[in-house]
Amino acid sequence: MSEIILDTPPVNALGAGLRRHLLAAIEAADADPAVEAIVLRGAGSVFSAGADIAEFAADDMGEPWHPLVLDRIEACSKPVIAAITGVCLGGGLETALACHYRIADASARFALPEVTLGILPGAGGTQRLPRLMGAREALAMMTGGRMIDAGQALALGVVDEVVDGDVAAAARELAASAGRPPIRRTGALPVPADLAEAVAEARARLPVAALSTAPARIIDSVAAITPDFAAGCAVETALFSELRTTEAARALQHAFFGERKVSRIPGLARDVKARPVAKVGIVGGGLMGTGIAIALLNAGLSVIVVETRDDAREKSRETAAKAVERDAAKGRITQTVAESRIAALSMAAGLEALGDVDLVIEAVFEDLAAKEQVFTALDRIVRPDTILASNTSTLDLDAIAAFVADPSRVVGLHFFSPANIMRLLEVVRGAATGPDVLATAMAFAKRVGKVGVVSGVCDGFIGNRMFEEYLRQAYFLLEEGALPQGVDRAMERWGMAMGPLRVLDLAGQDIGWAIRKRRAVEQPDRPYSGIPDRVCELGRFGQKVGRGIYQYPDGRTAVADPLIDDLIVAYSQEIGVERRLIEDAEIVDRCLLALINEGARIVGEGIAYRPVDVDMIYLNGYGFARERGGPMFQADEIGLATVLEKIRALAAGRNGWAWEPAPLLVELAAQGKRFADPNV
């Protein structure tokens, strides 16, 4: 018996070097007359998390080509047994599929998630998996990137055996026994009986206009299954090569690496350790505070919500409990887990209940005086080492930190609503925020399942400051000839989850109104369109009151309102602007360029560490399509010289003051560089 171990920490990625050694080891074992069977396993606690994703963007993916290695494993004249522990993903699962027998431990998990990277399984996965589990199930798994556990894998035929305990020992025992499994080559199995029907069903479910063609190409590749395995693999290889050069694939892989890159804080000493956080207090039991509480309960934390109003306190408790119970009813968690989460939530009427928590998150009304009252009181009540965080979305965190004796323990934790759903957590570093406090905030973000991105202090931080310029252009477009549904439709077709005007209706027009009133005093040189104020003066504060830019007859669905269209046309006449036809391309261009230019300004000012931080904020908090990669990624796709040329042209037109090119954009364009270059 020969044992071959995949060993490239931490996840045994199948890069070119490992593939080379794997091929040599298989050939040596196959040629050795003393070897009767081969066990293939991963080092450590995982089998393999898949390919080295960085290779997908390379001109040369390195030799040997992964499909050739797997064909050699499958062609081996001796039984090859895969011993699977932990995750078995992507190219790792494709490697296991090429083995003749698969034995897994009960904790193993399986997926072919290549669709989330804009590509398809390119090492025989589309040809082997359907032969084992049927085309319908395989297509669902591959087009959705769905993960299955060991029990499901056994039931579906992906693995042959599941064991408790040491799976490697079980595989070695099996390989050494006289009853070792026979050679069963997956590629030689019959064409799935449900192939034609499953392919037709999958094609019927495809969206009409998808930004990524990966799901469609996965279906095409599965449709190519015939008794001739090599012919099907040739189709798979051609489609894989096509996909890996698409914008969607580049964007999705940018997002994959970006979410990992933003967790690294430049300049933070390696010996800085995050503090332990087990018990968290939340001040404010409104919509945001309750959403934060649910997110924390789902992460296994103990939570105390402080809400002074009796009715709001009870509503917060009920809402959180219902959210947990709903997860149990849908099978996402067990009833035992649900009960423990509900038990971990306590409610209080006063801040005194927070005397022994590790972290406090303030989520009260967005008013500096209200924040002062909370932080001044907390400073007297909590332990000296308790971290004090504010959920403020626009206010000066340094001013808030000044309310406590030790401002180094103050940090911003800006959740996005609904806080238990949205993946972004903007972590705001104040001028005095301690390094260990910042490290703790980032570790906390990961603990509660969020993508934490660090921002410096400025009005609106990264996301909302950029969104302000995006909205400014949306309203200027209305002044010049567009209508709300036209602006929103153009941006949604391009890839935004929701158009800018619908977003404001959802968030509450009154919130934007309050910000504009404050900014009119603080930044009189950057005026806004008067259209949103006219809407607010009519009491149309958005979806929550049934009327905003749109009307909401059923309370949820946005319907164009002729009254608002007339208001917009009248406003154009009032300010002397002759309305014109505005095409979708211009709407997208101006809105996107506004995001890019302000993003570049923010990076140049040091508010964001890197351009990729800006992209991850927009992908995870603002509905920017992952297949588009983010504003700064899009700038690189367009070319910075072209972006600068377009911005300078806009600066020469109406409201040109809003288009002063960001110094960083000018600098990088002059050097022929991209925003990807500073992404260290």
Please render the helix and strand layout as text.
Blueprint: E1 2-6, H1 16-31, E2 38-42, H2 66-74, E3 80-84, E4 87-89, H3 91-98, E5 101-105, E6 109-111, H4 125-133, H5 135-144, E7 148-149, H6 150-156, E8 161-163, H7 167-176, H8 195-205, H9 214-223, H10 229-243, H11 247-261, E9 279-283, H12 287-298, E10 302-306, H13 310-329, H14 335-343, E11 345-348, E12 359-362, H15 368-381, E13 387-390, H16 397-401, E14 410-415, E15 424-428, H17 435-447, E16 451-455, H18 463-480, H19 484-494, H20 500-507, H21 509-522, H22 531-537, H23 562-574, H24 584-604, H25 611-621, H26 631-638, H27 640-651, H28 663-670
Parallel strand pairs: 1-2, 2-3, 3-5, 4-6, 5-8, 9-10, 9-12, 10-11, 12-13, 13-14, 15-16
Antiparallel strand pairs: 6-7, 14-15
Radius of gyration: 28 Å
The oligomerization state is single chain
Number of distinct helices:
28
> What form results from the Cα inertia axes?
globular
Helicity, in percent? 40-55%
Secondary-structure class: alpha/beta
Report on the structure:
The mean pLDDT is 95. Helices cover 48% and strands 10% of the residues. By secondary structure, the chain is α/β, with parallel strands linked by helices. Helix 2 links the parallel strand 2 (38-42) and strand 3 (80-84). Helix 1 (16-31) runs parallel beside helix 2 (66-74), helix 9 (214-223) packs antiparallel against helix 10 and helix 24 (584-604) crosses helix 26 (631-638). The chain has an eight-stranded mixed sheet with strand order 11-10-9-12-13-14-15-16, sandwiched between helices.
